[in-house]
Amino acid sequence: MVTSSEVFSTHPGKCFRYVENEEGRLVGCTEEVCWRGHYNPPKGIARLVSACDLHSGGLYRPVAIAPPKN
Question: Where are the domains of the chain?
Answer without folding.
Answer: 4-64
